């Protein structure tokens, strides 16, 4: 027999009577030696792994449904289904199954699910009647009727015959008349039998019977029968709830009577399925599939009828956006749209496409923009749910709207900025709404779902828009919470109308005459925890973690846009302030942001990190963590291990030159020793290269004055930048008051050179047992342009317990004489290493700033 492969989805039925998708693959029918028989095999189309291996058992009942489904039970509690992409594939596999079982492929069920004794009794019945003979519909026959209905449920063939008999004789309406009589007579036994009968008829799973039972004439009596469950001491009051408690709200009067009837019917049938009927047993799980389909198609019909009535929808939109509409009415309108969109999920893809296009044409996005900015929490929540449906359906549609809107509106009222503001101002302590909105923002800025056309690229256009108009809103809480600038905080609070809590640890008093205290917080990082502004409020920390997660996503998926923004705002320096947070999850978010940047292995980022000395707060956090073996410790070690394994030379040199003495005592991992080894190997290679250069060239290299060397350095930077990107980046507009941020990275470094007094020098300062902190000293002479003396480590004052810190010189000294000779990085053991450092393209000369 040929091995025919067809594309299918494999489903299994879970405990909640829902089908779980087990994967997509290709099905074949072949002989399997281990199973000793013909079997169904499904191999995953992604990797060829085996999704299903099922022997075609001669006694297993296979059912063919809807032309493209084959359903069967492997064991007592294990149901399987194959959903075919094409009818032809389903027919072919069905023929194979029927061939193994010796059945005609025209049947829809290969086996009858009744036991042998029942089958024998059934076969002995007179063949003159193809239908089941129903007892007369009388009160004294109710028990007999109940037994009959219950007995046929195990046999598909007898269920079909009973359904046909009930339909032909108008039996259901007669039963409901008996129900009214029993209720009037308070015949409890009869009511209990009627419960069993009506429940059994529902389990016959026939749409034609449902049409009768759920008609306006019959449905309330059907609900009444289902109130009298024999297992309950007192009957439930479902009819009272449906007629008195449940209220049908018409936000706009519905004139179509058929539509009104369909809405009422769907609500009541959904109530029967979800509330009244008990959870079916294992053997009854498939009995209500038609009931689910009945509700499903009703919803499709409701959505279609509403969608076609443009006058109705236009009126809804008009009232939704009308300022005169009162809050209660608007809340009902938004809830209507939320349910409307939820119903639309039942539509087929092409119909759903038409549905959302209709909403877009009527102005759903401008309406959402208005209601999402309202103070009513329920309205905002419902509007967010509607927005999520739209983003899930078509991110491009939302992006196109906001870009067109930007040409006519201010940044503050743009839809995406409204969404960001709602995320920032979420009052939920667990930030449930903020998490949902963050996910929607991520979808909108994800380049993977952006379209590229011949004339224009959605990715470049939208990202230019987002970074120019929206990024400053997203990063405002982050920049504010890592700033000591009171004006900046006041601006943030005023702009977002939200009372943020900035909890600051009391700072130790520092003399204003000390060099470090004259440097603004924006220009130093990794300062002592005691003088760092850092959010201690848990809700604020959660929000900053969400923002960092989005920024990390940007680093991974956006190229020059996020790089330009990070440089302009000196963003990584501000993020690393959060390494001092008492909330470890926030410190880890900050570290993850830096790890993603380093993971790109972009030399432009690497120069930014080394020139700004941005490893310092990370190493401070590692030392502060002490000997604790926790996630923070592991994450920091992994960061340095990545640099070692990937052999990122510029970062390796910076770490070893500036921090190795503080890290060499960490021996439980070989990471830092490995970095030192890599560094020394690179130095040896540079030595060999340098030795091959004539000595006259080496000596001439040191006869340039400081100005010439500085010009060469700038030229080197510029050449690297041209090589790296060769992309023109649209400048990020500075729409927020952040004067302390330079316009670009080069200006920042020039400003820093003017401010700093001399080269940074790291010295350990004991802040707690086993922990060291790096501090910096700045020489005024460097800022004035004069030659500075070598910077040496200063001994810190004694600690409160009387012990003093050991003095360790962690920084390399920088020497510059008054002549034209300019010294580079000095190492006490080898003078020629200075020359090597100068010639290395990856080692930055550490000159006095």
UniProtKB/TrEMBL annotation:
Residues 5-101 form the PP4R3 EVH1-like domain. It comes from Macaca nemestrina. Residues 144-681 form the Serine/threonine-protein phosphatase 4 regulatory subunit 3-like central domain. Belongs to the SMEK family. This is Protein phosphatase 4 regulatory subunit 3B. One of its GO terms (cellular component) is protein phosphatase 4 complex. Residues 776-818 have a biased composition (Polar residues). It holds the Pfam family EVH1_PP4R3. Gene3D superfamilies: Pleckstrin-homology domain (PH domain)/Phosphotyrosine-binding domain (PTB). Residues 752-764 have a biased composition (Basic and acidic residues). The lineage of its organism: Eukaryota, Metazoa, Chordata, Craniata, Vertebrata. GO terms for biological process: DNA damage response; gluconeogenesis; positive regulation of gluconeogenesis; regulation of double-strand break repair. One of its GO terms (molecular function) is protein phosphatase activator activity. The gene is PPP4R3B. Residues 752-849 are annotated as: Disordered. Residues 827-838 have a biased composition (Acidic residues). InterPro entries: ARM-type_fold (IPR016024), EVH1_PP4R3 (IPR055236), P4R3-like_central_dom (IPR006887), PH-like_dom_sf (IPR011993), PP4R3-like (IPR051137).
